[in-house]
Amino acid sequence: MGSHVTESVTPNDEMAGNYDVIASWFLTDWHEAPRDQVAEFMQGIWEEHGPPVNKVLELCCGPGLTLGELVRRGYDVTGLDASPAQLELAKQKLGPSAQARLVEAELPAIPLEEQFDAVVCAGGAFTYVPNSTVLLQAFQAAHRVLRPGGTFIFDLFSETLMQRCFEYTEDAPRGFDLESRGLTFFLACHRPAAKDSYDLTFVQFVRNDTTQTYTRSSAVHRVHTRPQEKVTDLAVRAGFRRVEVFDNYRHQPSGPETLYETYVAVKPGGPSAQPEASPRRAAHPPHP
Predict the structure, then answer these.
(1) Three-state SS for 224?
(2) What is the CATH number of the domain that holds 175?
(3) pTM
(4) How many structural domains comprise the chain?
(5) CA–CA dist 13, 211 (Å, integer)
(6) CA-CA distance, 121 to 127, in Å (whole number)?
(7) Number of helices followed by number of strands (H, E) in the chain
(8) Which helix (DSSP H) or strand (DSSP E) does residue 21 occupy?
(9) What gap in Å lies between CA 170 and CA 282, rounded to an integer?
């Protein structure tokens, strides 16, 4: 890369513009569930639990990858994200005719007073929440805007995934070169002193064909892995019941090799509610 390199003054916005490419790399190399599989799983859960779902709120919606799949299935969606750049991408992706609304807000705040039939949060967004206090507040906010009997579906990076990422990049960053987009992207994973935490460093170089220069953008994100029992306890404290954990948006329970833990929590009540003797903490034992 012999051309001149300058540092971006808006790295988050620069990286947001290539999110679709980065996301496709995660699908291939990190085995993240494709968004159509995510939406199919959600739809199956909603049909299983009933009554019918129409209004869906997605937290940390990013550029609208999951929102787009839900819109194509006929749902009335609202997307919430803290990044104006990501919301602009979502607006472009969904198009003017989509039955969708986009809201700028940062968790744990959900500045909405209406109720939704379902609340979702895909892409491991809650893994970036810094501590259990903020995660509980986010769960409580989701519970508040969810109708009785509604479902809350979200996923978290597992310890297995993060350990593999650490081992894979321990000797050197890993990445790809997408010549058609003039994009080179790198990822490195490090373990800080904080327990159950990892630092993900993203670096991208974008080529300007006119000037034959590159713009470098970088960002470091700390992610936190949490035992399933802890996450389930927080969901129960927020008011949810029937908490189950699945394997990467598939209808099978998670296990030691699960990379993305998919949680399904139900808010008590609703027309088809059945009395329960006690909350279901999980469908299976937590990871060691």
Answers:
(1) strand
(2) 2.20.25.110
(3) 0.86
(4) 2
(5) 21
(6) 11
(7) 8, 12
(8) helix 19-29
(9) 33
